[in-house]
Each structure stands twice: as structure tokens, then as C-alpha cells.
Specification:
alpha/beta; Rossmann fold; five-stranded parallel sheet; 17 strands; about 30% helix; globular; binds flavin-adenine dinucleotide
Length: about 375
Amino acid sequence: MPEPKSVLVIGAGLSGSVAARQLAEAGHRVTVIDERDHLAGNCHTARDPETGVMVHHYGPHIFHTGDRQVWEYVNRFAVMMPYRHQVKARVGDQVYALPINLHTINQFFGRAMDPAQARAFIAAQSRSTEPVSFEDQGLAFVGPALYAAFFRDYTRKQWGVDPARLPASILKRLPLRFTYDDNYFAHPYQAIPRDGYTAMVAAMLDHPGITVELNRAAETVTRAFDHQVYTGPLDRYFSHRLGRLGYRTLHFEHERVAAPWQGTAVMNYCDADVPHTRITEHMYFAPWEMARFTRSVVTFETSAQAGPGDIPYYPIRLLDDKTLLARYQALAQRTEGVTFLGRLGTYAYLDMDVAIRKALDASAHLIEAFARHARPDVFPDAA
Ligand code: FAD
């Protein structure tokens, strides 16, 4: 058994909690702090005291992965209930199915095409240049009519910039299907923890080697530790001394309504004249208990540029941000005794399964370096 190290983990989201658990299981003494008053970071869920509905407080979270080890890992800490995510989209006075599939195409164009006919029909409209921007990618994928209806204005609302300025990579996440398959995700494992993500994270942190302190910001910690795992914003760690990395923030307005209200978990609003990007009706994330609710909770979600006091949600990663990121990464490389991890610590959009995978890999690296009395890499995640 190697000499136990004292480790401070900043952030009780999935990244910090997985790292804490792994380090504690390897015999190290871990203190986890978070400035919020709850565990689980942005995956936080809690039952609404009036309706009993499990609410996803920072936006809808569906666990999906193709990584078997990550799947087995979450199953150690939660009962994972099978869940199939479907998303609808309002365009004008019509409701369509997303991702764009054969049903969407036929409904939109008022046709009854089979898969081969639809493929040829869309190909005839698509502009096939080498996609550089989001707009190029959208036009290449679906042609001008579907792009304008489903992506152009929605993307402007979501990102606050013209889609021609966004990288093509953002749209790689949305497939186009020439079948009637409207399963939003393609991964083999798709589920939602029965008792919510916060209970799952609490189970991860339930270990004799882990102490948790909520309502505690990193900047107020004076005690020395052998090592730190930092999952807060990278630029904040360095007191924004080189400038602020750009983020989009989200505003969530929760409302109690009669159940059922919109009849599905997530409805996107694609038109420019509707301020919100989507409405979430939370009870649909728990089909196994849905029948018992007579009242429902819905959340209107709008997107805005993040200011200094806002919660940073989506890294914008435009060219200026990438240049600044490279400078912060260089600073991080020179900072000994700290591992930068997670969506904020590495300034990257990470799905939950990827956040867990990276936390497992980073903690394995740390445990191995501690055992060899070697200096761990400081920025194992540099992208
Ligand atoms: P976070 O959850 O942000 O945790 C970081 C924690 O650090 C926070 O609790 C914060 O309070 C704390 N912290 C920061 N700075 C400090 C400091 N200085 N001192 C103390 N504490 C600090 N992924 C999916 O797989 N499926 C989905 O359906 C999905 N939907 C999403 C929807 C939205 C709207 C968003 C924004 C993300 C979604 N994600 C989804 C991604 C998911 O939220 C992330 O993968 C996950 O939150 C990453 O966890 P994390 O620990 O890296 O970061």
C-alpha cells in the first residue's frame, strides 16, 4: 500500500466525484468541496416538493454511452432505468420529430417518399462543398429548406452568433436519417438513474476516505494538500489574468402545470420569434413513475452570453477562445500539483459518459504516479 496522499477535489460534479471515489478506493484521503449547496454539479436532480416530479435543475440530462466500462461504473452507484429519448420540434404551427428522419422529411415536404427516394431528394438539394462552418455543414446535410426551418434560427438563439461563424463540428452531433428511427441517441446504453443523478453522485462520494464540504469555494481554502484536482473554470483558476474564455449561459424558468402539459420530454422551438430554445417536461424522464403524477413541472430554457456572475454552460470555442485556451493550457502545464479536469477545467463540451471516462483515466494516472513517487502530468487532458 503506497503512502496515502491528501487530495483536494474542487467541484462535486461527475468529474470531481468519480476522481474522488477512485482516489479514495486507492487509499488516498480526499476532501471534496463545491461552492454550490448540492452535489452533482450540472447533472443535479431533486424532487419538486409539491408535485413529486424529479426535476433536472440545469437542463435535461440523459445518460447514453457506448463505453461498457463507464456503463458498468455508473451501475455500481445507481439503478439505471432504460430510457429512450425522443425530441420534438416546433416550426411555425407544426410539430416535427428530431433528429431529422424520414417522417420529418415527408411531413415537411408533404410527400410519402421511401428511404431511397428521400435520400436522392435531399442529395439534390444539398450543397456539397467542404464544410467549414456550421452553416456549410447544415446546407451540405439537409439542403436550404430544412436548414432554415430547423437549424438556422435555433442555432442563432442557442449560440448568439451567425451560424456562418460557428465551426462545422457542432452539427456533427445531429444525424440525418432516411428511416423512421427517431431515437435521439444511437448508443447501446441509454438510461436515467431511478433516484436521480444527485443520489448517484452521493453514492459515489459515500466512502470513508472522502470528506465533502458544500458551500465552499476553492478560493477560501487555506489548508495545504499534496495534490489538487480542479474541475472549476480554467480561466477562473488563474483569476482570469489573460482574459475570460467565452461561454453561453442558460436561464431556466420552472413552472408547475397540470399533467400532462406538452406530452413529451423535450420540445425544441426553432423559430426566431420565440425566445426560448426548448421546453422540458420532467416527468417524461421517468416513465416508470409517470402515471402517478397529476401535476407536472415544465422548464422554459433560454440561452445568453455568460457574464462574470453567470453559470458557464457551453464553451463557445470560437477562434479567439481557442487562442486564449492555448495560453491558459500553457499556464496549466507549468502549474505543479494540480490536475485540471472536467468540462470547465478543460474548457470542452463533455457528455456525462465522456466526463466519467476522462475522470477514470486521470485518476488512474494520478494513482500510478503517486505509487511511483513521480510527478503527475499537470494537464493530462490538453486538447
Ligand atoms: P460540472 O457538473 O459543471 O461540475 C463542476 C462543479 O464545480 C460545479 O458543481 C461547480 O459548482 C463547482 N465549482 C466550479 N468552480 C468552483 C470553485 N472555484 N470552487 C468550488 N466549486 C467550484 N451530458 C449527457 O451525457 N447527456 C445529456 O443529456 C446532457 N445534457 C446536458 C444539458 C445541458 C443544458 C448541459 C449544459 C450539459 C448537458 N450534459 C449532458 C453535459 C453534462 O452536464 C456534463 O457532462 C457534466 O456536467 C460534466 O460534469 P463536470 O463535473 O465536469 O462539471
